[in-house]
Write a structure and sequence with these properties.
Number of strands: 10
Shape: globular
Helix content: 10-25%
Strand content: 25-35%
Order of helices and strands: EHEEEEEEEHHHEE
Strand order of the largest sheet: 8-7-4-3-2-10
Oligomer: single chain
Distance between the termini: 20 Å
Radius of gyration: 15 Å
Largest sheet: 6 strands, antiparallel
Amino acid sequence: MTIQPVRLFGDPILRARAAEVTEFDRELQQLVTDLTDTMHDDGGVGMAAPQIGVGLRVFVYDTHDAAGHLVNPQWEVVGDEEQVGPEGCLSIPGVRYDTRRALRVRATGVDMHGAPVEFTAEGLLARCVQHETDHLDGVLFLDRLDPAARKAAMRTIRESDWFSAGVTARPSRSAGGTAAGGVGIRSGTSQAGPFGRGR
């Protein structure tokens, strides 16, 4: 296993737009492996490359119903239904708030070998696609909250031990880190309630 430290809120890489992948080589394959191992170690259902300090447009997912990765992802809304449910982030430990997302999306991109990938996602997987693609654009789920919830979330972050100590990365659980409570997504028990796996 190749488990990496997870970057935390406050690390500038989480606010930068990740670069398009142009080299489909062993380094990219290793990145997908590192992301997958780190996601599983943290009990997450999704994780984007910037969360382990790599500024490339790659994310992995495993919602139990579907697992894989997407390189240079894009998505579009299918229909006009929305879902509202608890969301958190492996990079923002201890913070979970109801977040509005599209219920269904069509995701496109390529795999680690450059082969085209396309699928339609609903519920948790759709939330995961939207959350992780946001990461690649430097957007955090906090940015999707209404003003009152965002203010409360920021208060929780400011009062956290890790933020007040200036920690911008934490070791994996297997290396002594603590669970982060979110989607880098963590899976919940319902389609709309992911990212905070509670394993």
